[in-house]
Specification:
single chain; 98 residues; mainly alpha; two-stranded parallel ribbon; 4 helices; globular
């Protein structure tokens, strides 16, 4: 599925209030995945584009592989995704884990 088509489906789900608990995005981390993720985040947080671009938005938790093996450990998953999702959103709306 192309980025534009995937974004259209997710955008429509946001507009009608039928967003899934999660979406699995598969592809090039620095290509189509990054593009789609950025588009969705801008749709969810249209007034905070600077924070989205700098990856500093308090309601967006980021997790990337670390180390030479480029793996994501269970500890990192808990620390950077699970724990931040368990608290109330800063802006009172969406919370997103990437």
């Amino acid at each position: 599925m192309e980025v534009a088509e995937a974004f259209s489906l997710i955008s429509r789900a946001i507009d009608i209030g039928r967003v899934a608990n999660g979406y699995l995005v598969v592809g090039d981390l620095r290509g189509s995945c990054e593009t789609l993720t950025e588009m969705v985040l801008k749709k969810l947080f249209p007034n905070e584009l600077e924070q989205i671009g700098s990856k500093t938005h308090p309601d967006v938790a980021w997790l990337e592989p670390t180390g030479a093996k480029r793996i994501i450990t269970i500890g990192l998953m808990r620390e950077r995704i699970v724990e931040p999702m368990a608290v109330t959103s800063f802006s009172g709306g969406w919370k997103v884990g990437v």
